[in-house]
Amino acid sequence: MILTGLFLSLTIALGSAQALKVTYVDGTVEIQAANGWRPLDVGSAVAPDARVRVSDSGTAEFTRGAKHFSIIKDGTYSIADLLKGSAGAGQQGVGVSLAGKLHSVVSGTGQTSTAVGGARGAAQGDNSQNLTWMDDQSSETNATVLALLNKGRYHEAEVEIKKAMDDSQEDQQKQDLQYLLASAYYGEGESARAYRTLLAMTDDPQSTYYPDSLILKAQIYVDNRSYSDGLTVLKPLLSGSSQAQYAQVGYLLAAMCYKGLGDNGSAKSALSSGYALDPQSDTAKQISKMQSE
């Protein structure tokens, strides 16, 4: 009897350890039950064999141990499939490219406060004109946040960003801070929350972090196997008008999208185009690695 009780306790403990925990919900997120669908709330436990339905432009985030799993589009999902599909997400190095690109903004040419404040100037080659709206305080805040992001101190960056957002009076600065907040969320593994934050941004090609936001959004689509959406987002970066560092990362992401869609010819072409932009860059090294696979 005692052994039976111990066995049952162990079985329950193991089953509980395998469950996922809901950590973020936006829109309508439900779980299939015996008598229909019931709402899922933050903190709910979800079994690995459950089915989840997302609607009303919803998103959801789940964790199991240190791993994060996200849903960013409406539909009905098998948690088992989600676990399988997420096994390789984010493992192809584009997140590293993004961090490296941000680092180049912090420590690259043009160490003035306005140059440090954003990537648009680097992309368009004119920091002094493009970032004149930034005062010393906002520039210093952006530089601090970028440094934290590049050191992988994402939660600290999130705290700094939220404090700055509370104090911000400028619409443009709020837009910049939203992108940086999305980057912090993504670094923490919270893709769904990062995605919602990006969607809240104004889609303005003249905004400071516009190309960066496209890269991050496309990365999230790749991680979630929404490859067609990823290609759509990347179009402005591959139009020939983007600065090379953005276009090169864009081609790498596009290759991942094409590969996910089974279009190996287009994937190979994208990799070749990206590599040719700057064969000496860190992104080119990742392209070469993908070409050899």
Give structural notes:
It is a single chain. With 293 residues, the protein is of the alpha+beta class. The protein has two domains: 14-85, no CATH class; 94-291, Serine Threonine Protein Phosphatase 5, Tetratricopeptide repeat (Alpha Horseshoe). Helices cover 58% and strands 15% of the residues. The protein is built from 15 helices and six strands. The chain has helices at residues 2-18, 79-85, 94-107, 113-116, 120-124, 127-130, 136-150, 154-167, 171-187, 191-199, 210-223, 227-234, 244-260, 264-277, 282-291, and strands at 20-33, 36-39, 45-46, 51-64, 67-71, 75-78. Strands 1, 2, 3, 4, 5 and 6 form a six-stranded antiparallel sheet that branches. The relative contact order is 0.10. Residues 1-17, 87-93 and 102-136 have low confidence and may be disordered.
* The number of domains: 2
Bin the strand percentage: 5-15%
Mean pLDDT: 79
**Name given to the CATH architecture of the largest domain:** Alpha Horseshoe
Number of helices: 15
Rg: 21 Å
Number of strands: 6
The profile of the biggest β sheet is: 6 strands, antiparallel
CATH fold description of the largest domain? Serine Threonine Protein Phosphatase 5, Tetratricopeptide repeat
Q: Give the fraction of residues assigned to helices.
A: 55-70%
In a few lines, what is going on in this structure?
The protein is an alpha+beta fold. The protein has helices at 2-18, 79-85, 94-107, 113-116, 120-124, 127-130, 136-150, 154-167, 171-187, 191-199, 210-223, 227-234, 244-260, 264-277, 282-291, and strands at residues 20-33, 36-39, 45-46, 51-64, 67-71, 75-78.
